[in-house]
Give the backbone structure.
Amino acid sequence: MERPKDISIDPPVAIVIIILFHLVGLTGFAVPSLRPLFVQIVPWHLLLMLIVIILGHQKFSNKFMLFMLIIFLSGFGLEWLGVHKYWLFGDYNYGKTLGLKLFDIPLMIGINWFLLIYATGVTMQRSRLKSAFFRVITGALILVALDILIEPVAIEFDYWHWDNNIIPLKNYICWFFVSAAMLYVFELFSFKKQSIAAPTLLATEFVFFGGLNLVVLL
């Protein structure tokens, strides 16, 4: 099952959209007078990235749709366990920035998990690592590194908040194992080698949140 050519996005176009909208977002967050507006459009930014990634995926199929559904539901369900049962990540709750919630969990968080896992999975797919085990472990470590950059920004801009504003070590440990489990699922699906659009998204996320950390510190 393939999409008609006219509703797909060529890799160069996808890359330009990803970089452009992250740079615009970074600029908006860096200007205090624009921050309230850019905080409000965070969910729309995630939806745009979702559309770009979906339309940029080669060999669109029911298998790809199933993978998206598995990661979305897994991410949402694990966040529910974290918020309501404290079994994962730590004692935290979500603010308003990520938008519409179901059972106190933003629907966007499932989409965010998909974007991060897919982008990292494709990055590892395109790497020189031949072992699936090392691709999974390396990818999970990359996502933990990204989460270290995300956390201060998330707290500052009302994505989520920690009890007593203390980020527990448990959060990063759980991020590693949850990421590894989801990346293992990516490996099981054995997608055809994808373009550099998804790795571009991952790299741009590092630049985006790294830049926002400078904004927060300043």
